């Protein structure tokens, strides 16, 4: 078993790629801000063409799984990915 850690920038890239594909827009048209709060846990606010949308942790992990496969050729499952908060939000992947 090995561990892969995605930085906050990579998580943002993963969400941008995922949302651009889902909405049929260019990746550069997508802006993402990650956050963690006691009540809501991990969320991402996504802006596309002036509209804002919130993603919950499971949506973020879905984007991370697709990114792992497309960028690293790692086939991981939902239970393999854990979001962590230290100085920034990271994704720890056990595969």
From TrEMBL:
Pfam families registered for this protein in UniProt: DUF2653
Domain of life, source organism: Bacteria
Full protein name: DUF2653 domain-containing protein
Organism for this UniProt entry: Paenibacillus durus (Paenibacillus azotofixans)
